[in-house]
Structures are given as C-alpha cells and as structure tokens.
Design brief:
With 184 residues, the chain is an all-alpha fold. It has helices at residues 2-21, 39-48, 50-68, 78-94, 99-105, 110-134, 146-172, 176-183; strands at 25-26, 32-33. The protein has a two-stranded antiparallel sheet. Helix 2 runs antiparallel to helix 3 and helix 4 packs antiparallel against helix 6 (110-134).
C-alpha cells in the first residue's frame, strides 16, 4: 500500500510540474496562471488525507523551486530570501495539502471536492497577498496602498488560477475523483 501511495504521489508531482510549466500567463514579477498545476496535489490530499497531502505538496514545492532556479543561488539578503521561500513557496503551495482536511469536514461529496479545492487556492492567495505586502510593497505604484497593490497583482493571476482549478475539479468530481478516492 505504501508503494502505491508513493508511486501515485510521485506521478502527481510530475504532472503538477508539467501543468505548471504549461503556464497560460506569467506575471512580470512572479506568479502564473497554469493549466491546473495545483489539481494533482489537491487530488493526492483528497485521496490520502491531510498529512500525506501536505507532505506531497511540500515535495512538489521543492521540485518546483529547483526547476525554476529559486534555490540554486543565494542572494546577499538572506532574511528576505528565506521569507520569500517561506511565504511564496512553502506556505503558499503547502496549503494545497489541506484540501483533504476540508474535504473530510464537508462530507466527502462532489460539493466537498469543489469547495475544498477553492478554499486551498484562496489560502494560497492569502500567502501571496501577505508576501506582496511584506516583501514586494516597493513595486506598488507611487500613491497606491501596498495592500491594494498586493490584492490587484496577486488576484490578477490567482483568481483565474482558482477558476481553472475549480472547473477542472468540477469535471473530475463527477466520476474520476470519487473512483480514485474509493480505490486508494
């Protein structure tokens, strides 16, 4: 059983990376609209629960950071760098693993699949929003409040990302995801 869990998770991590590479839009200072890059990780969390989902999300995050070159060279300002890794990667993508928690609390039906997916994408937005205020406020146009800049910038790619994820999860929740959860 553990071998199957590891294999499924590894395949889903690989699929998440492929879907993330196939970005529909890349924001100029970071952030992408993908073809459902979070979907495979959310599915793992729904199948195997919160703890395994978080573990898978964190491994996927590490792979993503390596592929994007985020952790290949260290900048001179280490505190900002580590805060960026924590907020924009570890926490932001780690929350995908919480989908299983929300799914279990909502009754494990189609509504729970779709809603838990939307919730974790929203939580990811919250992490990026906080990062936008704490780390990236200097990019805000003169006279614009930093919090507004962060909502506009991060919402600009996270809202479409949420819509794409929810649409994909809605389609998959009809037959595919319930079957995967049953067979786990």
């Amino acid at each position: 059983m553990k071998t199957k869990k590891l294999t499924v998770s590894a395949l889903m991590i690989a699929l998440a990376q492929i879907l993330s590479i196939l970005a529909v839009f890349q924001a100029p200072n970071g952030g992408d609209i993908t073809l459902g890059g979070s979907v495979p990780i959310i599915i793992v969390s729904l199948m195997y629960g919160t703890r395994w989902g978080i573990f898978t999300a964190l491994v996927s995050t590490l792979v993503n950071m390596l592929l994007k070159g985020v952790i290949t060279t260290l900048p001179t300002d280490l505190s900002t760098y580590f805060l960026m890794i924590l907020l924009d990667y570890v926490l932001a993508f780690g929350v995908m693993g919480l989908a299983g928690f929300f799914f279990n609390k909502m009754g494990k039906g189609r509504f729970a699949i779709i809603t838990s997916s939307a919730i974790v994408i929203f939580l990811r937005f919250v992490c990026h929003f906080a990062s936008g205020i704490i780390l990236w406020g200097s990019f805000a146009p003169k006279g614009q409040p930093v919090w507004l800049y962060s909502i506009i910038y991060n919402g600009g790619y996270m809202l479409p990302e949420m819509i794409i994820t929810v649409i994909i999860m809605s389609v998959l929740s009809v037959k595919i995801i319930p079957k995967l959860i049953k067979e786990k």
